[in-house]
Amino acid sequence: MKAVLLISHGSRYDKTIDEVRATLDQIAKKTDVPILEYAFLELQSPDIPEGIERCIQRGADEILVLLNFLNAGRHIDGDIPRIISQAQSKHPRVSITISKPLGHHSRIVEVFADIIKNS
Fold it and tell me: How far apart are CA 8 and CA 6, in angstroms?
């Protein structure tokens, strides 16, 4: 069963959790993915290993780690792949893949243009 784990950086600002949950709710309305979870790299719970465990406990055998990050950097190129690799070693029968950051998406310019037009 397929799962999506939305990963965000995390913040000391509690509103972040509400925003991530709202994003996940919107994703649920637009997709038919049976398992949707969220996790944070740092500062908030659940962390990434907990998020992966939640997906697996709900029956996931395939997890797409959806990066809620704009561009590459230390976390995208190092920290997150390391954490995912550790989880993959722990759960070799589960396929875990990582998306590209949002800034790599072909429609990001359209999103920025829309923000500019509506500001």
Answer: 7
